[in-house]
Amino acid sequence: MLGPVSLALLSLLALVLAILLSLVLRLNGGLLALLLALAVALLGGRPLREVAAGFPTQVLLTLIGLTLLFAVARHNGTLARMTGRAVVLCRGHAALVPVLFFVLAVGLGTMGAGNIGAVALLASPGMAAAAQVGVPPLLMAICIASGGNAAALSPLSPTGVVAAELLRRAGMPPVGWTLYVQCLLAHATAALVAYLVLGGPALLLRHRAQRERLAAVLATAEGPWRLAHWATVAVLLLLLLGVALLRADVGALALLGAVGLCACRLGDEEAALRDLPWGTIVLVCGMMTLVALLERSGGTALLAGWLGHAGGPIRMLLLVGLLTGLLSVWSSSVGVVLPAFLPLVPALAQRTGADPVALASAVCVGAHLVDVSPLSTLGALCLAHAPAQVDRTALYRHLLVWGLSMTLFGALYCGLVFGVLGQPR
Question: What DSSP state is assigned to residue 110?
Answer without folding.
Answer: I
